[in-house]
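Structure record:
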Amino acid sequence: MMSVKPVSSFSEPRPFAARCLATLAVSLIATVVCAISAPSAHAALTVTEFTASTASTVAGAHSDGTVALSFQTTLDSGEGVIPTGGTPDDITVKLPPGLVGVAQNVPQCPVTTFRSIALNTDPGCPPDTQIGTGTVYVTNVLNHGFAVTYGVQIYNLATSPNQAVVVGLQVDAFANLGQELITAGVHAADGYAVTLSAPEIPRPDGATLLRSSLTLWAVPSDPSHDAWRACHQFWANNGNYGLLVFGCPSDAPRLPFVENPTDCSTPPVTTFSVNTYEEPDVFTTGSFTAPNPTNCQTVPFAPLLSLTPDSMQAGAPTGLAADLSIPQNNDPYGQGSSELRDTVVTLPPGLVISPSAASSGLEGCSDAQFGAGSDAPAVCPAASQVGTVEVLTPLLSAPLEGKLYLGVPLNNDPTSGEMFRIFVEFKGFGQDVKLVSGVIADPVTGQLTGRFLNLPELPFNDVRLHFNGGQNATLVNPSNCGPNTTTSVFTPYSGNPAATNSSTFLTSYDGNGASCPGTLPFSPAASISPGSGQAGALSPLTVSFSRGDGMQPLGQITTRLPAGLLGNVSSVAVCGAADAAAGSCPAASRVGSVSATAGPGSDPLTVPGTAYLAYGTGGYPFALSVVVPAVAGPYDLGNVVVLVNIQVNNDGSLTAISNPLPSIIDGVPLDVRAVTLTFDRPGFTFNPTNCGPLSMSGQITSLGGTPAAISAPFQVSGCGSLPFKPSFTVDTQGATSRAAGASLTVRYSQQPGEAATHSLRVELPKQLPSRLTTLQKACPESVFFANPAACDPGSVVGMAVAHTPVLDSALSGPAYFVSHGGAKFPELIIVLQGEGVTIELPGETFISKTGITSSTFPSIPDVPISGFQLTLPEGSHSALAANGTLCKSKLLMPTTITGQNGVLVKQATRIGVTGCTKAKPAKKKKTKQKAKKARKARAARARGRHAGQGRGTS
């Protein structure tokens, strides 16, 4: 039955300069019959018949295939029969997907041998190389315009390096000129269905094609074709006529050539286009739909995938070889194997993307550079190549070879298959095939699943992918020892249930079979170094934490910096806590740079970042917002933000506690190897003023939860060059009482650039003893250290204020007497608070047998203090008592002050007494005159008394 779809005409560039009589091909086998006529009217060609089908509809069956093509004809002025609309020129045929011909199953005839028959020098191609037969119906001038039918023999010819398949057509009556070489190829625009073409051919005697019918044999060596198989060519002496002899067997193995599609859900559609010599840019098109294939349920399909890493060492970067094979059924009377539609491969847990792959300048190939959908070779950057590919197909005599490229991500969703993309290009025999694979990464575990969907419906024996190895390999082995299993799901075009497959490889500690320890080792290292070693100097500071290859990744870092190694918070516009958590601190908050290293092997990836000073949360006064842009090769995964909380200790030192380091970002395990922070903001960090041996200490916990202690030495020099001239003054109120006791105010200050104070010891004068009733109200240490606010108010004996250039505001707070039971005298502990910082400054109290009270502050923080004042007021709970008025006392306080640089200052500090009234001026002496008068008056009074007595006795 003839079935022709509506035919249309359109203009397009000529795809090739071929002159075709007719065309039939099965996959990569093409048969085209071409003829040429005299010019005709410039009207569109009309196709009256186009059919293309196989003798059997059984899916995968090896069945003869026949194509028939007829043009509408008319009579020319000489009453000759010609096609309406012009002389047929280029005929292009695209075969249904899955309709294939296995040219490698048939012997090949050299092209020179095929051509030699036209020179009357050779009997032509061997009978074993004939793959079909047919007829052409043509008209030419020798027959005065009348149409004549000729036979056609079809041969499988040898190919050149740029040809996939070449088919030779021999027309019986035109042995001298009636030959054509037809090539077949696949094109991306056609979904890699086979497209057929032929080079330009001569026009023997002006012959014009009217109709053709060509058949390719399913099994060319089958005896059923013997009667149509050409054996020899005989020529008359004049060389103008020839005679073909038919009826000889084939000695070739009985192997299949034509194979039906294996997809029963889609009707096979063959399309064609044809133009004319007169109007080469105008094409007539049409198509033929054959019945759907049947019996798909019995189509064989047995794929097998093996996965082998280049290295078997656990946790090491590795290349990876994947070999997918699908056995092809060469039974000439059976069903061929189904083609593969989809492949989904899930790699073993732990076989994940390696960050180290990006350390060598990895790039991505854009869609435009790859050119999927185009036959042009890809122009991907060399740095985007991540592997190689080799494809073996029964259709070709040698493998197709190519490269694997890393595709530029389309989005940052690791589960979309558009973030991690592999571009596959393989070439050979003039063909260029491009495929795109999407890789899904589990965002929590990093486990990878690769997908190839809607693959070309062409057979292959093997597909061998190899991902590059070495230290910059794309993948890294699981860190565990033992079996690692890949699972695969293969969906056939036949519609039958998907086939599943698994492949297992073993990893070991050294790659040679040594078992892994229960857990990988973890012994991290730390280092700290200032830019300048001068004591007290403003200097950059670098702190590093690292672990070796083959160890557990870094998880969380806690470290205590050497005492006196501090930063000038007051010089920074401190970032808000919310912005710090979001990684959006302003540049004014920047205090340093960060370098983060991740990935296995000897060449891990290092990414720069920035550290900002921020306000802390959760009881921490400050924090570092460490922001590292996660940019690796073509991937920009945004910013990784890690908060490092900063705690100020009682000795003024700093403890930094990082949040857990990220373990995975968008499905890429980070495998953090090292973190380096360099505080390089000018005028921010400054060195201790203590030149003794110090250290940085702390603990790093691995990602797996294993803790390890760290320690790094630190020491500065040049302390002797630092001045140490503190100012220390004391005063008290002169008026005291038994009820109110005595007061004391202490003032302490230093100039910028001096060594900080290490210790202070004073002895109170005997006139200012400790008040025993107040000491008895001292706060128990258990209560104080749990919560000072819970102490008895009677234990609060004073207030202190400290000013430091390090902070914007002063620290202030109460002074407590704190009891340690009977172990020692109560301590005087000063609690200083401000800007979220709390410092407890303990002073030891001692009362001698003579009642002298001494107070010692043995460990004052190595922090610059511009001013300090402690006030111990009078009151019912005063710290000091007094024995009478202090106004007439000369009060001295023996004082010893030691600097952090070891300089000792001893002085007898005079205690100033305030609030005393001035003494009245002494009266002047009487003058001599007044004294004489007084004597005379006294004498007169005496004489009067004597006279009176005399009178009384007479």
